[in-house]
């Protein structure tokens, strides 16, 4: 049963994002005008999507069909990682945008268009099983191609820095709670426990945001995969946790377990080094998801308080529910469950802006 669906925030671009008079867009127009061999209709440019970063995407028409133009201000975002990972994932045999033209200095890319229908927009009770199996098959193909040293390592420092977003931005900034020394020490012990599990897992290519907003529903080659520029070499269950414990669409536990087992079966058949014990594998999956959920709570709070993007507050309850349920399931996570109980009482007082 589908429990909850949130609207895709990136499809509701702000007036500032959509304006056709800003200086970056003028530069983009100029660059596109120089690409005469593609017969681009410059007057057809319109917003395609935006995300939590400073990148913007525009759809444009040409004599050969539509393209996507990426605008990544060089002082804020780099296009080189996108180009690098697009090549790596493309060689894995999955569907990613082709980089047709690039202007690294100005931060512009011309990409093939994978359409405008995300998984989030198309998923329903009737099609979910087949669509998730497609996503799982693509994930296995990416992981099978993993080679150390090609992508940055998802090491302890990076994983811990992500966890620290939770006390800094969610607890302190969003809820206005100052943890006592005892609470902070207990939370650090929980972080150590989570990281010990995460770092002990086999390492593979990790997309880092493999979920319903970044997967495109395709008639062939499903799914199209976007937003992979932050890919790393890290824990094997990370992307599965992103996919099945999605902040934007929630499925009942029985269905999540079924999909997790189907991934595990496919991964073992493909020779991937998942834990051979299904119960221990699922524990790895849950502990990896816990790291991600704590991070996401911090990121969503930061997007609101620092960047003024309040739509992400709508997704906090779903992520907190994932976090709390996982903490309750494992005795060693009892101190986290106790802290979350206290924070949830504070959350009710703070409320949400929706």
Task: Give an overview in words.
- This protein is α+β, with helices and mostly antiparallel strands and 354 residues long.
- Helices cover 48% and strands 15% of the residues.
- The protein contains 13 helices and eleven strands.
- The protein has helices at residues 15-18, 23-33, 80-91, 119-122, 128-144, 156-163, 165-174, 181-200, 238-244, 253-269, 278-305, 316-329, 334-350, and strands at residues 2-5, 40-50, 56-62, 65-71, 99-103, 108-112, 203-206, 215-216, 224-225, 232-235, 249-251.
- Strands 2-3-4-6-5 form a five-stranded antiparallel beta sheet, covered by helices on one side. It has a two-stranded antiparallel ribbon with strand order 1-11. A two-stranded antiparallel ribbon has the order 7-10.
- β5 (99-103) and β6 (108-112) form a beta hairpin.
- The longest helix is centred in the last third of the chain and has 28 residues, at 278-305.
- It is globular, with a radius of gyration of 21 Å.
- The protein starts with a strand and ends with a helix.
- Residues 4-21 have low confidence and may be disordered.
In brief, what are we looking at here?
By secondary structure, the chain is an alpha+beta fold. The protein has helices spanning 15-18, 23-33, 80-91, 119-122, 128-144, 156-163, 165-174, 181-200, 238-244, 253-269, 278-305, 316-329, 334-350, and strands at residues 2-5, 40-50, 56-62, 65-71, 99-103, 108-112, 203-206, 215-216, 224-225, 232-235, 249-251.
């Amino acid at each position: 049963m589908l429990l909850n669906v949130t609207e895709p925030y990136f499809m509701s671009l702000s007036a500032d994002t959509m304006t056709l008079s800003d200086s970056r867009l003028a530069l983009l127009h100029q660059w596109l005008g120089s690409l005469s061999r593609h017969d681009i209709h410059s007057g057809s440019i319109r917003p395609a999507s935006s995300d939590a970063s400073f990148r913007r995407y525009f759809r444009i028409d040409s004599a050969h069909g539509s393209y996507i133009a990426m605008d990544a201000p060089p002082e804020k975002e780099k296009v080189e990682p996108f180009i690098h990972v697009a090549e790596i994932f493309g060689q894995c045999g999955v569907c990613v945008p082709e980089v047709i033209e690039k202007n690294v200095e100005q931060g512009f890319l011309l990409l093939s268009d994978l359409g405008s229908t995300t998984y989030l927009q198309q998923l329903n009770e009737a099609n979910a099983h087949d669509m998730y199996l497609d996503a799982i098959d693509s994930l296995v193909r990416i992981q099978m191609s993993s080679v150390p040293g090609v992508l940055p390592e998802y090491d302890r420092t990076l994983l811990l820095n992500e966890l620290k977003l939770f006390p800094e931005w969610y607890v302190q900034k969003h809820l206005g709670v100052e943890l006592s020394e005892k609470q902070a020490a207990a939370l650090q012990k929980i972080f150590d426990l989570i990281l010990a599990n995460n770092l002990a897992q086999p390492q593979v290519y990790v997309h880092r945001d493999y979920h319903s907003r970044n997967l495109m529903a395709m008639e062939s080659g499903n799914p199209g995969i976007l937003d992979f520029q932050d890919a790393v070499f890290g824990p094997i269950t990370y992307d599965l946790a992103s996919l099945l414990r999605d902040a934007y669409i929630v499925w009942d536990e029985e269905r999540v377990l079924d999909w997790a087992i189907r991934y595990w079966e496919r991964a073992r058949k493909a020779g991937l080094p998942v834990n051979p014990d299904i119960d221990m594998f699922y524990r790895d999956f849950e502990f990896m998801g816990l790291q991600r959920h704590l991070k996401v709570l911090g990121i969503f709070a930061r997007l609101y308080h620092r960047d003024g993007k309040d739509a992400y507050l709508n997704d906090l309850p779903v992520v907190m529910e994932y976090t709390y349920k996982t903490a309750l399931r494992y005795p060693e996570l009892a101190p986290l469950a106790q802290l979350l109980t206290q924070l949830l009482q504070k959350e009710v007082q703070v409320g949400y802006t929706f």
